[in-house]
Design brief:
heterodimer; A: mainly beta; 7-stranded mixed beta sheet; B: mainly beta; 3-stranded antiparallel beta sheet; 9 strands
Chain lengths: ~120, ~110
């Protein structure tokens, strides 16, 4: 059974870059889409972006200018970098495996499984 | 930008049926899925591709999607079903989540 685990600093200073890594265990990272999703305390979910194991990426247009994702198939890991962070970026960050398929012009997608999440606080 | 609207909260008595709605423009032309999130836990997929249940999800969870509304139905609701529920779809090259519905079982 595939499991995901986020790791990275829990505290980032304003204007700096948030960096997180997701390690996939129990299965291969190859031939799947992998996404990052965040959730501010007491609020809803926001998709950040996805990466395919080929390195192809898609980002949320609202965050695109600040997001970079990468994948390391040899380590079964993928990573997130979010630059120029502010307090508004404080959230629990989740990584998840994404099913993504174009079926006759309609996009089929869902996230399963998810990592346990990691809280990142932006503060000086 | 595309929006998915859910009621912020609803309550149901144990054993009764809970129907949580998710509204969006022509949502029935898209695929919808649903997640359950209990306090302090990660979201769990309970319905995908409008109506399908992942392995391990109880049969009391079902979904539908038509017109402008997707619905998650929980039949014979149990105390363990108390949680936040989020709908999700895809539009214009981005993932969209509903705002979430807090389901109280009392």
């Amino acid at each position: 059974q595939v499991q995901l685990q986020e790791s990275g600093p829990g505290l980032v200073k304003p204007s700096e870059t948030l960096s997180l890594t997701c390690t996939v265990s129990g299965g291969s990272i190859s031939s799947y889409y992998w996404s990052w999703i965040r959730q501010p305390a007491g609020k809803g979910l926001e998709w950040i972006g996805r990466i395919y194991t080929s390195g192809s990426t898609n980002y949320n247009p609202s965050l695109k200018s600040r997001v970079t994702m990468s994948v390391d198939t040899s380590k079964n890991q993928f990573s997130l970098k979010l630059s120029s962070v502010t307090a508004a970026d404080t959230a629990v960050y989740y990584c998840a495996r994404e099913k993504f398929e174009d079926i006759v012009g309609a996009i089929l997608n869902w996230f399963d499984p998810w990592g346990q999440g990691t809280l990142v606080t932006v503060s000086s | 930008s595309y929006e998915l609207t859910q009621p912020p909260s609803m309550s149901v008595s144990p054993g009764q049926t809970a129907s949580i709605t998710c509204s969006g423009d022509k949502l029935g032309d898209k695929y919808a899925c649903w997640y359950q999130q209990k306090p302090g836990q990660s979201p769990v997929l309970v319905i995908y591709q409008d109506t399908k249940r992942p392995s391990g999800i109880p049969e009391r969870f079902s979904g539908s999607n038509s017109g402008n509304t997707a619905t998650l139905t929980i039949s014979g609701t149990q105390a363990m079903d108390e949680a936040d529920y989020y709908c999700q779809a895809w539009d214009s090259s981005t993932v969209v989540f509903g705002g979430g519905t807090k389901l109280t079982v009392l």
